[in-house]
């Protein structure tokens, strides 16, 4: 049996340490000391596995090297063995591991010999699975150091047995030392076996205003690790939330906390709105209430509530509202047109913004040109729309035939409509009209008017008789004409309205019926009733009913009718009479006498003188003159045997009135009688005109010898 003392270097630090100097070293351990950490080794060699089994069977386990002191101690104490000693380190999954604790070997704790571990690389048999560790003891070089070796090699087992028992330390850890152990007390405990507890001052645990405290004790009232948890009434927060703890230094971990009124984050007045708060406990604190309102045209947003209350959690029960402009429905598309709501995408459809509408070419806006977003979130006007610009179908007047380019229901600008009329009607207005860009026709549509002929002009004295109404003389209508009495028609008696609204002939006129100027024979004179006011000429016309009376110069005799009348149809009732010179009977020389006439023919005013032979005296007028009746102024004288003058001659001479004309009373009476007998019928015809208008007398001037 071998026992070795080990100076416990930590003894001075321990308040209650003890040192065991008992060592037991034997092949079969008969060790009796109970409070000693002891080493043992085998007499025989064995491989690593067998060595560990042997240690675990007889002791605690294979040796785990704690420090250099321990190494020095072992190197000093153990006998030299040629194969050295197995220790409790092994390569597991390529990591050097303490097999007792199953923890990897750290660099600090390593105590490898020079160039180790090498896994046998220095020998020819490299890769030798040198997975176990031996410790050199009493080697010439590198003594106390470690070397990796194949686990199957036979070496001496090096074991230990622990000194600590379950009840070695009450509130602390038992630490093995070489051949001994010590207690490392837990915090708050002291004493050799860690059975004493630290205590704190109970009076320091005060209760704050609006708060309460609840202590829990792990080891006893207000001993180490007692916890005093504070809490506050609703709406108050602890200035420190962690509990007060009784620490190992016999002091509480903290000062007792206070209860502080819960604060909510400050709220701000919203733009375009207002906020009214009431603060019963403190500004913007627990139970403060704020009411938000938005200006007209703005609505709450970013919050579910108009009224915010500060809750015990320090949060408002809803988020801070802001006032956003009312949003009207978005206007996206205008068929065949454009919407302009401004460029700012955020304000396009918001309160007070105005959108403007326009239409594509060929379309016109129907409805409002602009709309404004109102506070009610509605647009001020209903949406307009774009309508194709079309002209209205021309009205279908009676008898009008319309022919349009394109559908009548869709007459766009540039479209045209042409017109014609049914037969018998004519177009009044443009034949073709065109739809202009503003949807209006460039001209009014024409109408159809019945083709009619104008009423013939009512010339003087004209009597018109038409088939049908005078105001509606259609083609084929006829008008017939006649003249008042005394007039005759000049032109067609009947005219017809032709298809183009024109008469086939001009309307006739009425002309007064008249007779041509009467012929006046040489030595003739005419007198007409009534007669043209101006001096007549060869062209003068004499109205119907005119009566012309003729006479001849003295010494001439009328041949034909004394008068004539202008009668239908413009003809004199007779031809004009002629005047022939009066001739007296041819005188021969009286018996026993001679005759001497002034002219060879016994015309008016020619004279014949008579002389008697010697012895005879002329009985009667010596000279006879041919008067205008063709009578000699006296009986042809005779030549008698000379006798005194008679009474008859004296009487005849007595009635002779001076001048060229001398008629005896008897011969004048006889002429008148003869004249009356000849012309009585003619004078009776126009006795009236003789009275009313005294006849004016015209005569053929060239032949006027009076
Ligand atoms: C917040 O609290 C106020 C006051 O109690 C209440 O009127 C409101 O409705 C609450 N809001 C919400 C979102 O709960
Ligand atoms: C006839 O009368 C004229 C004139 O009176 C006269 O000159 C002439 O000699 C007369 N002749 C004869 C045959 O007497």
TrEMBL record:
Domain EGF-like: 160-195
Origin superkingdom: Eukaryota
Subcellular location field: Cell membrane
BP GO annotations: cell adhesion
Bilayer topology annotation: Single-pass type I membrane protein
CDD domains linked to this entry: CCP, CLECT_selectins_like
Transmembrane segments: 648-673
Domain Sushi span(s) in chain numbering: 198-261, 262-325, 326-388, 389-450, 451-512, 513-581, 582-641
Record-level Gene Ontology MF annotations: carbohydrate binding; metal ion binding
Gene3D superfamilies: Complement Module, domain 1, Mannose-Binding Protein A, subunit A
Disulphide linkage map: 164-174, 185-194, 232-259, 359-386, 421-448, 483-510, 552-579, 612-639
Domain named C-type lectin: residues: 34-160
A Pfam family this chain is assigned to: Lectin_C
This protein's GO CC annotations: plasma membrane
SUPFAM superfamilies linked to this entry: C-type lectin-like, Complement control module/SCR domain
Alphabetical keyword list: Calcium, Cell adhesion, Cell membrane, Disulfide bond, EGF-like domain, Glycoprotein, Lectin, Membrane, Metal-binding, Repeat, Signal, Sushi, Transmembrane, Transmembrane helix
PANTHER family in the cross-refs: COMPLEMENT COMPONENT 4 BINDING PROTEIN, SECRETORY-RELATED, COMPLEMENT COMPONENT-RELATED SUSHI DOMAIN-CONTAINING
Family, as annotated: Belongs to the selectin/LECAM family.
Listed name of the protein: Selectin E
Gene coding for it: sele
């Amino acid at each position: 049996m071998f026992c070795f003392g080990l100076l416990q270097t930590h003894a001075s630090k321990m308040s209650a340490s003890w040192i065991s100097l008992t060592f037991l070293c034997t092949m079969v351990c008969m060790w009796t000391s109970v409070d000693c950490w002891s080493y043992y080794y085998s007499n025989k060699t064995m491989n690593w596995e067998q060595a560990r089994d042997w240690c675990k069977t007889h002791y605690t386990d294979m040796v785990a090297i704690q420090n250099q002191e321990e190494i020095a101690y072992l190197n000093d104490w153990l006998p030299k063995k040629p194969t050295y000693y197995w220790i409790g380190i092994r390569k597991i999954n390529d990591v050097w591991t303490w097999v007792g604790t199953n923890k990897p070997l750290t660099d600090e704790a390593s105590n490898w010999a020079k160039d180790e571990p090498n896994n046998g690389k220095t020998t020819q048999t490299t890769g030798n699975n040198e997975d176990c560790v031996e410790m050199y003891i009493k080697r010439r070089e590198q003594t106390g150091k470690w070397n990796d070796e194949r686990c199957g090699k036979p070496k001496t087992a090096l074991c230990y047995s622990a000194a600590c028992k379950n009840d070695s330390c009450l509130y602390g850890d038992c630490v093995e030392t070489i051949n001994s152990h010590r207690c490392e007390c837990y915090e708050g405990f002291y004493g050799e076996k860690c059975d004493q507890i630290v205590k704190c001052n109970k009076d320091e645990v005060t209760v704050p205003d609006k708060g309460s405290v609840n202590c829990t004790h792990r080891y006893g009232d207000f001993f180490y690790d007692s916890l005093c948890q504070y809490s506050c009434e609703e709406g108050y927060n602890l200035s420190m939330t962690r509990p007060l703890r009784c620490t190992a230094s016999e002091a509480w971990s903290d000062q007792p906390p206070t209860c502080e009124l819960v604060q909510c984050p400050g709220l701000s007045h919203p733009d375009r709105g207002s906020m009214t708060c009431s603060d019963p406990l403190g500004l913007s604190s627990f139970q403060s209430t704020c009411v938000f309102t938005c200006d007209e045209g703005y609505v709450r947003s970013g919050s579910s509530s108009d009224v915010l209350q500060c809750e015990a959690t320090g949060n408002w029960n809803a988020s801070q509202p802001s006032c956003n402009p009312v949003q009207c429905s978005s206007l996206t598309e205008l068929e065949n047109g454009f919407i302009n709501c401004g460029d700012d995408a955020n304000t396009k459809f918001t309160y007070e913004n105005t959108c403007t509408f326009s239409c594509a070419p060929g379309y016109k806006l129907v409805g409002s040109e602009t709309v404004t977003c109102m506070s009610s979130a509605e647009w001020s006007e209903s949406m307009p729309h774009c309508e194709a610009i079309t002209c209205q179908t021309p009205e279908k007047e009676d008898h009008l035939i319309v022919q349009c380019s394109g559908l009548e229901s869709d007459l766009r600008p540039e479209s045209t409509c042409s017109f014609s009329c049914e037969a018998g009607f004519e177009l009044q207005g443009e034949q073709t009209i065109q739809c202009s860009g503003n949807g209006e026709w460039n001209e009014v549509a024409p109408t159809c008017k019945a083709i009619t002929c104008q009423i013939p002009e009512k010339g003087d004295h004209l009597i018109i008789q038409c088939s049908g109404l005078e105001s509606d003389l259609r083609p084929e209508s006829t008008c017939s004409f006649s003249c008042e009495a005394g007039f005759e028609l000049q032109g067609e008696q009947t005219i017809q309205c032709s298809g183009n609204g024109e008469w086939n002939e001009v309307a006739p006129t009425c002309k007064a019926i008249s007779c041509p100027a009467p012929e006046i024979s040489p030595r003739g004179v005419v007198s007409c009733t009534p007669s043209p006011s101006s001096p007549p000429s060869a062209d003068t016309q004499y109205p119907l009913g005119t009566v012309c009376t003729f006479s001849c110069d003295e010494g001439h005799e009328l041949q034909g009718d004394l008068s004539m009348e202008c009668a239908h149809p413009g003809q004199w009732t007779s031809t004009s009479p002629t005047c022939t010179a009066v001739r007296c009977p041819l005188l021969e020389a009286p018996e026993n006498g001679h005759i001497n006439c002034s002219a060879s023919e016994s015309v008016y005013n020619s004279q014949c003188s008579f002389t008697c032979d010697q012895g005879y005296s002329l009985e009667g007028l010596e000279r006879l003159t041919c008067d205008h009746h063709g009578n000699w102024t006296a009986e042809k004288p005779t030549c008698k045997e000379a006798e005194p003058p008679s009474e008859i001659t004296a009487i005849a001479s007595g009635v002779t009135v001076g001048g060229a004309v001398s008629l005896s009373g008897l011969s004048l009476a006889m002429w008148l009688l003869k004249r009356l007998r000849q012309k009585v019928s003619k004078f009776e015809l126009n006795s009236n005109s003789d009275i009313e208008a005294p006849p004016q007398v015209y005569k053929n001037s060239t032949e006027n010898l009076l």
